[in-house]
């Protein structure tokens, strides 16, 4: 809890945001911190409700209510209000390895479960979380924690997204020697190559990876574990292997693309190329949206991130085609807007979404895409079609290389992480399907507990799931 009467005295305060028209001119974060005294009052709004549903993490009608990590939310809200940052930090890090990621990109199911929100506005839980960890980094109180002794056991974690990082962090702190294998040039998975810089700055991801390296985790990048010889080596050299390779098997576009050699790409391909170009100065063969009419298929985070990225690259226009009708998206009669929809509105004067329509046909000139015909009968000029249509499941090559049983995702027993192959485990999007960063961390932490038990015969790592 914060202050007993805090929820009556203080109103919810959102963090200030740079205006959409201003922020589309750069790639910097658009959400800014609140002054310290205001943040303390926001912690004080937590009202000692007795049953903190915010930390329960329950599933109901396909949605999550409460924090899947069971973050000790009322405790750290209390510490924010009391002005005790070191205690707030220690309680936060008990359950969440990377609050600097969730504090920026989590959709905050905890706030949906906040009792304060039943009759008014929920406590600003996610922003409070971010302020604790960022204040701690700024004050240099996030210390390096090396295990007091090493166990002599070796674990390979394949994939360095939030799942792999969380598993590696937990097992390293238990004293196992952990090596993270990543096929890309840089670690971080979708934290690095998917979610754009304005939502999650890449130096924030790098800061955590450097800290983990300092604490003893080894990172090997540019190594693809779907190569059978690499997989065999890992199986021979390590006591356990955890596959955390995400779920990037793409859905097919469902339209005839014959004869079209340029102008079509997948959302994650487009976002990855944008990050490589913009943040890491690397040239790629994937188109930019500059001076092009852009059509995005799909809705959700990826589609929004593609729209925001295309705007910053200087596209000529943006239309977003959404298969389901508008009524399916209304919340209390209002159509929610993402940061990207606000930005498109500011630049082009209209919401980019067209509901209840799909792509019917593609038109090309000399092999280059030039227009899209919709099921609504419109012909839209289009120099770049981005398919943000989601993923079917995990990639098969890496499953084949390790011989694990899989379908859409890797098969494990309900709530468990061991695969069909001895000493091979799997977690995150690769096991549960496309999900969220908070679930990825929860999976990584819990898989680490199971692996620790496998290696030691017991574990003192607390399961999140
Ligand atoms: C564009 C986009 C935006 C998103 N925005 C949000 C958001 O705002 N909030 C949120 O909560 N969630 C968001 N998500 C979802 C979230 O990013 C994922 O659920 C999360 O990253 C899954 O973590 P993971 O570690 O399981 O997989 P990933 O992050 O996908 O990481 C898997 C890693 O495994 C590596 N790998 C794969 N195969 C191999 C191999 N053979 N050898 C070696 N390495 C391999 C990959 O290169 C990658 O680095 C978004 C997803 C996308 C695509
Ligand atoms: S991780 Fe997400 S659900 Fe959990 S407290 Fe933070 S914002 Fe809420």
What does this structure look like?
The chain has 465 residues and is an alpha/beta fold. The chain folds into three domains: 6-138, Orthogonal Bundle (Fumarate Reductase Iron-sulfur Protein, Chain B, domain 2), CATH 1.10.1060; 154-248 and 392-456, FAD/NAD(P)-binding domain; 264-389, FAD/NAD(P)-binding domain (3-Layer(bba) Sandwich), CATH 3.50.50. 38% of the residues lie in helices and 15% in strands. The chain has 19 helices and 17 strands. The chain has helices at 6-9, 20-23, 36-44, 73-82, 85-95, 99-105, 109-112, 116-119, 125-138, 162-173, 190-193, 202-215, 228-237, 267-280, 301-313, 339-348, 396-402, 429-432, 437-456, and strands at residues 58-60, 63-65, 154-158, 177-182, 218-221, 240-243, 249-250, 264-266, 293-297, 317-322, 353-355, 359-365, 368-374, 379-381, 384-387, 391-393, 424-426. The strands form five sheets. It has a five-stranded parallel β-sheet with strand order 5-4-3-6-17, with helices on both faces. Helix 6 crosses helix 9 (125-138) and helix 10 runs parallel beside helix 19 (437-456). It is globular, with a radius of gyration of 23 Å. The relative contact order is 0.13. The mean pLDDT is 95. The structure holds flavin-adenine dinucleotide and iron/sulfur cluster (SF4). Residues 105-106, 158-164, 181-184, 189-190, 194-195, 224-226, 244-246, 268, 271, 301-302, 305, 398, 428-430, 435-438, 440 line the site of flavin-adenine dinucleotide.
């Amino acid at each position: 809890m914060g202050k007993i009467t805090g929820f009556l005295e203080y109103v919810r305060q959102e963090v200030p945001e740079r205006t959409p028209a201003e922020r589309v001119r750069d790639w910097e974060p658009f959400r800014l911190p609140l002054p310290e005294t205001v943040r303390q009052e926001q912690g004080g709004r937590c009202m000692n409700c007795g049953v903190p549903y915010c930390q329960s993490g329950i599933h109901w009608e396909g949605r999550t209510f409460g924090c899947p990590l069971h973050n000790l939310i009322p405790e750290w809200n209390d510490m924010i209000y009391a002005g005790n940052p070191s205690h707030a930090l220690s309680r936060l890090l008990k359950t969440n390895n990377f609050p600097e990621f969730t504090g920026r990109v989590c959709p905050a199911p905890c706030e949906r479960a906040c009792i304060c929100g039943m009759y008014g506005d929920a406590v600003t839980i996610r922003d409070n979380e971010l302020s604790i960890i960022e204040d701690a980094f700024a004050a240099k109180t996030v210390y390096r924690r090396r295990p007091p002794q090493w166990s002599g056991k070796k674990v390979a974690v394949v994939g360095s997204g939030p799942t792999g990082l969380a598993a590696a962090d937990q097992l390293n702190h238990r004293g196992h020697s952990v090596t993270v294998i990543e096929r890309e040039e840089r670690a971080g998975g979708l934290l690095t190559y998917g979610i754009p810089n304005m939502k999650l700055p890449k130096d924030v991801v790098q800061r955590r990876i450097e800290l983990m390296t300092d604490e003893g985790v080894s990172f090997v990048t540019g190594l693809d574990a779907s190569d059978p010889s690499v997989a065999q080596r890992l199986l021979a050299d390590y006591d356990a292997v955890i596959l955390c390779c995400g779920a990037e098997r793409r859905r097919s576009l469902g339209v005839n693309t014959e004869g079209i050699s340029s102008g079509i790409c997948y959302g994650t391909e487009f976002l990855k190329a944008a990050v490589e170009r913009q943040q890491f100065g690397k040239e790629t063969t994937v188109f930019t949206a500059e001076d092009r009419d852009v059509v995005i298929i799909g809705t959700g985070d990826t589609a929004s991130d593609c729209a925001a990225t295309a705007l910053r690259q200087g596209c000529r226009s943006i239309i977003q085609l959404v298969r389901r009708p508008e009524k399916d998206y209304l919340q209390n009669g209002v159509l929610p807007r993402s940061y990207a929809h606000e930005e498109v509105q500011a630049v082009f004067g209209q919401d980019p979404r067209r509901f209840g329509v799909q792509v019917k046909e593609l038109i090309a000139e000399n092999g280059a895409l030039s227009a899209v015909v919709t099921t609504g009968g419109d012909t839209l000029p289009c120099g770049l079609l981005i398919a943000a249509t989601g993923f079917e499941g995990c990639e098969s090559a890496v499953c084949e290389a390790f011989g694990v049983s899989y379908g859409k995702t890797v098969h494990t027993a309900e709530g468990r992480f061991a695969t069909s192959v001895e000493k091979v485990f799997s977690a995150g999007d690769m096991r549960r399907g496309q999900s969220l960063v908070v679930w990825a961390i929860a999976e990584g932490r819990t898989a680490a507990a199971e692996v620790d038990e496998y290696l030691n015969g017991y574990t003192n790592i607390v399961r999140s799931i």
